[in-house]
What does this fold into?
Amino acid sequence: MLIPQSLAYATLAGLPPVMGLHTAWMPLIVYFFLGTSKQLSIGPDALSSILVGLLLTEGGHEDPAQAAHFVAFIAGMFLFCAGILRLGFLDNILSRPMLSGFVNAVAIFIVCDQFDTFFGLPSAAKLGKHGPEKVVYFFENIGLVKWNTFILGLIAASFLFAFRIARQKLGKRYPFLKFVPEILLLVIAGIILSVSIDLTDPAIDIPILGDLDAKFPVPAVPDFTPTVSHWRTGFTDGLIIGIIGFVESIVVAKIYAAKHNYFVSPNRELVAFGMANMMGSFFGTYPTFGSLPRSSVADIMGATSQMFTLIASCVILFTTLFLGPIFYFLPKVVMSAVIVVAAYGLLEFEDIVFVWRMKGWKDLAIMLLTFFITLFASVELGILVGLGISMLLLVKNNTRLHISLYGHIPGTTKYKKLDKHPEAQRIEDITILSLTDSLFFSNIQKAKDMISRIEKLGSHVIHPGEDLLTTELKGVVLIAKNISEMDVSAVQVIHEMVESYHARHIPFTFVELPDQFRKIFKEAGIFHHVPECDALFDNVHAAVDHIRQHSQESHGKVDTFQLEESEAGLVYRTTRAKQNMQKDMETKVLTGLRLKKKAEDNEEQLERPKRGRRPSILEDVDTHSTPSSPVPLEEVHMDDIVIIDH
It folds into this structure.
């Protein structure tokens, strides 16, 4: 199966057929040693071949073969570096609708591209026509159609389609059908027919393949001509073919890995495909990747390791060295029929039906946009547009945040999500919310804006044009237990938020902050503004109590203070208090503090300043205690109001 496909796909790429045999040799050996899939069959395939042909044609290369070697090296180098950098997630950057639209467009493009060969017309590629342009070319030159060629091609394609249907319908009843190489049988029949009746006779005039010039591929360095246009187009083509080829191959590899219950490493696959293409470029190959039809055959044949690729590569090398002259008489239209049937296998009708049935109009729009741009504009533009759409969707999804507001369950110390628990009551002056996403540079600013909107409007889903809330915010509680990752940008913005709220005397607290972030917050200086004990809590109730206590004490906030002793104990005496609290403090003065130690130690503690040591407030004062005895009001000066700043 690989031999006739290699010849046909090299022709599809606009390259000498023997390059297909070279491409089916060295890359297989490299993948045998480095690949992780047990059923994936690599080698020339329809998708990468048409991409190579179109991109090389658009690049206007004087020597397509040398350009193909260079593109294979660039694609391999890109994939190898991506594997070393562990960028195996590349298979997820292309959305399924975009990829489906692109592949369907390429399949139809391939069928259209075979019109001149299938109908025996003069080559339209020499006139710069490809894809749908060849359909127009066909109708313009319909009088030149060679019906003998068309009939032979129709018979060949019908045989392949009929065999495929028979295998699907009768495969269970006649298992041997799964092992019949129908493409190889067709090629042998075509060669026998050509030799028997001489298809090159002017009365028949059906073109044949001709001399393959098959010989051992002597290793040679790809053409690295240092021209700007050569490098620019080479890098662009290699990057595009590398991404598309890898995505298609890893999808096939994962299908059979799931079927046979083993793991495929995307990073190792990147390295394997990279090395296969780089090494292959020195042996006259063009970019090569996995093939779904051949992988399916390998699975049916019972392949459980890559040993079948090693055997296949040896058969290919033997064919290249000794059996090349046999293919001299192979009719070109037979290879064209093989390409048409392979292109039909690329069509993904089930994806279109599924998207339509699920009413995924956005996905359908992406699919159709990629399809029409690829088919009627250019393959390169279609890929770039598809990649652009996929990246935009990726950024949009990564910037999306899931924020939930919490409320208090009356009569308990529990707090639940407001949208899932109708009995929960929101605390108007305290914002309690949770984030369930990782925080990165792409979404942290959005998180900051949402928290600000909740403070001002009461909800993050209310339009900013609505009326602002009049309730004064007393504090913010962020439930952080579901935050798994933060980057430096996210930590920096959180630091700015805490600093901003601290400047407004509004506590910003964290509940169930994962341990890995506590050290990061310390190094970032977040706890320089607020002590760690006042910022981190194990549950929402404790955080809310702290905010309430802070709010009550903030009414007695002072600017400066000093520690003095009185007959009742140690007190703070401020030199200045808030003006709006002076009148109240004149009539309602806090009267002192209770000492921690026992009553019999009071005299000793009060005498310490006389011996030159001022007592420590942390040692001698219990700031959470209620006063045991008042300070006489006459001892308090009107400009020295006695308060406690906790």
Notes: The chain has a mean pLDDT of 80. The radius of gyration is 38 Å. The chain is about 55% helix and 10% strand. The first strand starts at residue 41 and ends at 43.
